[in-house]
Q: What sequence folds into this?
């Protein structure tokens, strides 16, 4: 019903969330560009965009800072944006982690210990939720600088679309965790915390891990323990930002059963976490037979009419069969989208049709935006029907 | 063909064309990977069904993807058990916590030691907090399933282990875990274990890698990048690429031109032109997508070294057991 522009009215942060392969990156870029044409200064933070999409946004040089999409290119493609500007950035998770360590380390020695720790160097990417956390961290940092009217975040392609919500909490739990406390005392492996039996425990543990891995781990956990305070505070503020009324979560999904169910589940999780849900965008909806699926189709009659119009009975049969296939997909998509709207009890469901061409460039983004920013579902249907 | 004869033939093939180029199903372990949303789980299951049909005792491992196997086979839950799904096919859902527990059980033969560890909170915290450990023990379980002489009591011997690996978000991290741990732990049991896992993953005679892609710009780019990174970072080659969801070519150029002419039709009575137009419009979409997809398929074949097998787009609204079975016949394995 609503348009993205309405959903994002008065918002400073838009977070596009959803599972992998549903077109999140493309949608994020399209939203950012669309808002920029409406006179906003917008930055889109993305992870791993398609090469051509990156090129078209002027992101051929990838770095951990925002870059402005060339205003003349932008104007050429999209028209005069007025005050609007489009900036884009690709997140480098490891570099962000390094920045966070530099900022939160209580002293230079701790900082160097962490940055030079072998476990940190090789495995920080595998740290539970670290990539998601770094996306949040960067979002927070850029927001705090206050240079943009709107930030659009394309969340990481995690296996579980919800991981990033818990990321700040999980990282704090890790930092605060008992595992760290165990290693707080360089000698005796936290005997005071865990009492008798602990050193025996460690000798058993060593049997499994080997001596130096255990020592490296100890070193790693010890180094991080100095950052507990800074991390906890930062995670709290990131969480505040996410649940702020100026933030809006847009759930992105596809029209098949599974993505729809995931979107429903995800919406529930957002509600549970008291995060501000804005709406849902369903990509690649089979729209083409929308008009006809409302009409009873007399297959025989249609075939005859097609045969007459094409002057080829055999071709007419194939066109009609193909139409049947598409109508079935269209009916499935319609049922699924209805189920979604009912379960979410929201009218903010924006459908983008499965376009004839794969979207990966500026022209494709403009095409998508006609739907994202259409005033309502009727206009969208009319657009799809006339395409 | 009886299973015994099939195996004998397979052995001969393996000797003749060792390593890369050997049939995918003649490996001991097949890792199926790819970007999210490309149908990786469906293709993994189709490969497993094809293998089972050829008489190979096969197990399909899900790595933390929410019990899709149990859904496909209408079972309550597969879980961390080797469950028989159909003739010659077993399934297991690899829960990292269970894998960790099993690893400790196998490492520590003395019961008192194990009890001490499992009771200890320190162990629980450490196991949860150590980065990469979950991935390591998960790969460890895959390795164990592929052993001739299984470590677990009365473990079944499988001819083939198929892994529905995590979606490649940021590259190749999952498969790299053993190498990383082998480097980190300079000596000791973890190092030996990690070395063994790494050796298995990198042995082209035993292990095959299949990547699932879609005939679209982004998935094609990512598949080519994944192939490059697997080679440069882990030194493994991709054996097969399955390009999923390919539209059929239903209309010739001249046919699509005459159908396209109907889209602009604006005469006659309204009901008729609306329906005819919609049918023609669907045909035009079909033609455009089929054509674009073939360009992307050509790019995929050009950019990647591994042979590409295409799988058809399924027009059925649901993908169930029947569809997966018919897909498994298209795999050309």
A:
């Amino acid at each position: 019903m609503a348009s993205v522009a309405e959903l994002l009215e008065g918002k400073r942060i838009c977070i596009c969330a959803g599972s992998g392969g549903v077109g999140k990156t493309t949608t994020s870029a399209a939203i950012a560009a669309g808002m920029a044409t409406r006179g906003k200064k917008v930055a889109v933070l993305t992870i791993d965009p398609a090469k051509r999409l990156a090129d078209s946004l002027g992101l051929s040089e990838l770095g951990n800072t925002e870059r402005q999409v060339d205003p003349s290119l932008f104007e050429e493609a999209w028209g005069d944006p007025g005050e609007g500007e489009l900036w884009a950035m690709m997140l480098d998770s490891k570099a962000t982690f390094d920045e966070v360590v530099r900022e939160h380390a209580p002293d230079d020695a701790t900082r160097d210990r962490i940055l030079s720790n072998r476990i940190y160097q090789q495995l920080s990417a595998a740290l539970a939720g670290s990539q998601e956390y770094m996306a949040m961290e960067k979002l927070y940092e850029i927001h705090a600088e206050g240079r943009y009217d709107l930030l659009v975040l394309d969340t990481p392609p995690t296996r579980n679309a919800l991981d990033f919500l818990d990321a700040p909490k999980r990282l704090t739990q890790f930092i605060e965790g008992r595992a760290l406390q165990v290693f707080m005392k360089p000698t005796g492996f936290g005997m005071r915390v865990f009492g008798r039996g602990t050193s025996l425990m460690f000798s058993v543990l060593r049997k499994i891990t080997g001596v130096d891995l255990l020592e490296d781990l100890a070193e790693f956990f010890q180094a991080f323990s100095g950052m507990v305070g800074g991390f906890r505070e930062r995670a709290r503020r990131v969480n505040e930002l996410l649940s702020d009324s100026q933030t809006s979560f847009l759930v992105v999904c596809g029209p098949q059963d599974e993505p729809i169910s995931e979107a429903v589940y995800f919406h529930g999780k957002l509600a549970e976490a008291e995060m501000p849900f804005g709406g849902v965008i369903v990509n690649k909806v089979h729209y083409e037979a929308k008009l006809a699926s409302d009409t009873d189709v007399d297959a025989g009659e249609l075939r005859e009419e097609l045969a007459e119009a094409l002057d080829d009975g055999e071709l007419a049969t194939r066109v009609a069969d193909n139409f049947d296939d598409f109508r079935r997909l269209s009916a499935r998509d319609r049922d699924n989208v209805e189920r979604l709207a009912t379960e979410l009890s929201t009218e903010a469901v924006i459908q983008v049709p499965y376009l004839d061409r794969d979207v990966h460039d500026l022209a494709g983004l403009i095409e998508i935006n006609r739907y994202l920013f259409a005033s309502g579902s009727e206009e969208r249907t009319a657009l799809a029907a006339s395409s | 063909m009886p299973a015994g004869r099939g195996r004998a033939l397979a052995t001969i093939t393996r000797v003749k064309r060792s390593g890369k180029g050997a049939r995918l199903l003649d490996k001991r372990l097949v890792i199926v990977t790819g970007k999210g949303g490309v149908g990786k789980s469906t293709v993994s299951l189709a490969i497993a069904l094809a293998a089972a049909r050829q008489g190979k005792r096969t197990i399909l491992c899900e790595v933390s993807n929410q019990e899709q196997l149990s859904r496909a086979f209408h079972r309550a839950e597969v879980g961390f058990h080797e469950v028989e799904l159909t003739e010659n096919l077993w399934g297991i859902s690899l829960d990292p916590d269970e894998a960790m527990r099993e690893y400790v059980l196998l490492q520590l033969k003395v019961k008192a030691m194990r009890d001490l560890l499992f009771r200890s909170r320190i162990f629980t915290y450490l196991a949860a907090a150590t980065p990469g450990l979950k991935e390591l023990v998960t790969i460890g379980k895959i390795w164990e399933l592929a052993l001739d002489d299984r470590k677990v009591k009365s473990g079944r011997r499988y001819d083939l282990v198929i892994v529905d690996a995590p979606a490649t978000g940021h590259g190749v991290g999952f498969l790299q875990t053993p190498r990383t741990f082998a480097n980190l732990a300079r000596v000791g049991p973890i190092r030996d274990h990690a070395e063994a896992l790494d050796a298995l993953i990198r042995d082209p005679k035993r292990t095959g890698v299949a990547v699932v892609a879609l005939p679209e710009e982004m998935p094609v780019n990512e598949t080519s990048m994944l192939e490059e990174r697997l080679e440069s970072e882990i030194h493994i080659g991709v054996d097969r690429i399955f390009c999923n969801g390919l539209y059929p070519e239903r209309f010739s150029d001249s046919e699509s031109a005459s159908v396209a002419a109907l889209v602009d039709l604006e005469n006659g009575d309204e009901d008729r032109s609306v329906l005819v137009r919609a049918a023609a419009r669907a045909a035009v979409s079909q033609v455009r997508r089929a054509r674009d997809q073939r360009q992307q398929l050509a790019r995929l074949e050009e950019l990647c070294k591994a042979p590409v097998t295409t799988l058809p787009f399924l027009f059925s609204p649901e993908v169930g057991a029947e569809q997966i079975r018919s897909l498994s016949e298209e795999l050309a394995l």
Summary: Residues 1-20 of chain B have pLDDT under 50 and may be disordered. The longest helix of chain B spans residues 270-303. Chain B touches chain A through 74 residues (CB under 8 Å).
